[in-house]
Amino acid sequence: MSTPEPHEVREQTRQYLTSSLSRQIGDDEDIFAAGFVNSLFAAQLVMFVESRFGIEVENNELELAYFSSVNALTDFVTYKAGKGRAAQPCD
Amino acid sequence: MRLTPTPELAALRDRFRDFADKEVAPHAARHDAEERVDRAIVGRLAAEGLLAPLLPAGLGGRGLDPIAYGLLHEEIGRACSSVRSLLTVHDMVADSVRRWGTPALRERWLPRLVSGEALGAFALSEPDAGSDAAAVATVARPGRDGGHHLLTGTKRWITFGQLADVFLVFARTPDEGPTAFLVARDRPGLSVEPLPGMLGTRGSMLAELRFDDCPVPRDHLLGAPGRAHPFITTSALTLGRYSVAAGSVGIVRACLEASAGYAAGRGVLQHQLVQRMVADMVVSAEAGRLLALRAGELIGAGSPHAPMAATEAKYFAGRAAADAARDAVQIHGAAGCSPDHPVARYYRDAKVMEIIEGGNEVSQTMIGRFGHTAGH
Q: Its domain of life (chain A) (predicted)?
């Protein structure tokens, strides 16, 4: 599976979150802090990025911060694919 | 989308059914009466390649298609819910080790879990927390030597806790929160107390596990500290709910076969009120299977919709099993209340399906709040 470019990751992630949450969200909007989802959704997001982008989330990457927004997810996926900057949980 | 089994799947299903009929069903009444299964069943399941069959061949498994896995658990569930429960919790442990364990942990435990040398059990529930992983009270304190955590607390209603050799235990570390540990039965400070006299799945050998400063090596931690919930719980419970859903469909089929045969033999199948009960069994078995196999397909694809699909399937099929078993007893009348007919066992086992791996109300809450976003 070839990993898409960052702008494609962002678009697919935005579409997934919009569909899953049944609402429009800003790319920097923290879906956990905003109360749109509970923490169980983080597990679904791990499954989303693994199945959609063909990456494997490592044990030391199980941080909500990596999955908290469109931008955070895009940074994380592109970092894992070697196509972006290193993501940091506190970004 | 294809909704009927391929020839290969149908052949596998027939093989599973044959095994269940010959190796499991003849012992089901005894499992229920004696509140135990023979350890030998573990060896027979392993010899047939039915323990942790989803594991890829590279890890010692057979890489079974999750759809076929559902058909397997339906057939075993039709024969004996206690043996199906054994497969459920064992496979939840094996799959968690595969997904969240270190390479060394996988290398050490997965071959033993596949061969049946080690039987696994899932230790989440507690007296005051139920199966709410976020509320576990069992504590895992870092040991002074830096190489261990010390577990203290109580796990209750642990399926096959009496027989298991290794437990996937959820405990709270002081600084991080719920954390998953693989704990061998022979660790010091761990005692196992049988819980006899349960209502249903009486052969599933429930136990209470008591941890008293039980030292667990740090390299037996799964995932990351504080990350057991939601990550490990979700993946494990998704598989568990899929298994229970499929097993519940098996109970519905068992009720149908017993009821239709009994009603026909007694000449009461001509009565429309009996036909109504049989018709509901027929349709709920079909519908439950479709829901279960949809969950299996999504699990196989690693889809984020898999957890909700498994919850939906388990919710529907568990209720369908309880309804079918109640009607099966009704069709049998007084005979259905006696130990001479299996429907009394189905009735008690089916009730458990509405409770384990998240009760009906937990399912309703999840589906009601989040199901509408789950890719329908």
A: Bacteria
